[in-house]
Amino acid sequence: MAAAMARGLRDDVDRLLFTDSGSGRAADLAAALGGEAVGTNRELAESADVVVLAVKPAKLAEAAAEMQGAKAVVSLLGATSLEKVREAFPASEVVRVVPNVGVEVRRGVLCMAGVIDAELRALLEGLGHLVELPDSRFDAATAVMGCAPAYLALAMEAIAEAGAAEGLAPELAHELVVETAAGTAALLRDRDPAEVRRAVASPGGSTEAGLEALDREGAREAFAAAVKASLERMRGR
Predict the structure, then answer these.
(1) Facing residues of 72 across strands?
(2) What pLDDT score does 49 carry?
(3) 2-133: what CATH class?
(4) 135 and 83 in contact (C-beta within 8 Å)?
(5) Is 44 exposed, middle or buried (0-12, 13-18, 19+ CB in 10 A)?
(6) 95-106: string of b/e by CB count within 10 Å (b at 16+)?
(7) Residue 237: what pLDDT?
(8) In the chain, where are the structural domains located?
C-alpha cells in the first residue's frame, strides 16, 4: 500500500524518498518513480517532511528507534492502534491511515484516525476519498474497503470469463465489465443499490433470472462470509 500511495503522490511532492530492510524494493520503486533510495531509516526520517510507516507491526519499536527525528508519521500498520504508534513516536505528529489499492490511480478510499495539518490532509485527499473514523472501527472498515477491491475484481473476472465462454473476445469481455463497473459505481454515489437493481431487472427478464441464480448460489452469503473471514484473520482468530 505504501508503494501504491507513492505512485499516486508522485506528481504532488517535490521529492520521494524510500528505504527498506534490504530487499531492494526501495531502489526499484525509486527508479520507477524518479525518487531516491536512502541508506537508513534515520536518514529518511531526518530528510522527509512526512514519513509513511509501512513495516510489519512487530517491527514498530525497531523502526521507531531509528526514526525519532520524524516530523510527521502516517502509520499504515495493520492491527496497530493510533495510541500505540503515538507512544512509539512521542515527538512526532502521528496519524493512522488505511488506504485501499485505488490510491495508486488517485481514486482510493482512505480511512484516517488522528489530527493532521491542512497540508498533509490535502495530500491524502488527493489520493481519493478520505473518511475519518474512530480507531476502534478500523478493522471493520478495512474488511469493507481494504479487502473489497479483491472481491470486486473476482466478481468482474468471473463475469468476463463467462462472457468469453459465450464467444466474446476475452479483451472485449474485460473491457465491457470494467467500464460497466465504473459507470455503476458512479451511479451508486447517488442511488441506492436496491434501486439500481430494480431499474435493471425488469420482471421476468434476463437480469431477474441472473439475480435469482445468484441467490440460489448464495452470492450475498458468500460476500458476507468473506468480510467475516477477513475480520477474524485481522483479530487473530
Answers:
(1) 93
(2) 95
(3) alpha beta
(4) yes
(5) buried
(6) bbbbbbbbbbee
(7) 66
(8) 2-133, 148-234
Residue 53, C-beta contacts closer than 8 angstroms, at least 6 positions apart = 60, 63, 67, 73, 74, 75, 76, 77, 85
Q: Average pLDDT, whole number, for the chain?
A: 96
- Average pLDDT on 2-12 reads 96
CA geometry: angle 81, 84, 90, nearest 5 deg? 135
Lowest mean pLDDT among 104-113, 163-172, 217-226, 228-237: 228-237
The amino acid occupying position 59 is K
Q: What is the signed CA dihedral for 48, 50, 56, 62, rounded to 10 degrees?
A: 60
For the residues of 17-83, what is the DSSP string, one character each?
EE--SSSSHHHHHHHHHT-EE-S-HHHHHHH-SSEEE-S-GGGHHHHHHH-TT-SEEEE--TT--HH
CATH superfamily of 148-234: ProC C-terminal domain-like (1.10.3730.10)
Predicted local distance difference test score (pLDDT) of residue 21: 86
Provide the whole-model pTM: 0.91
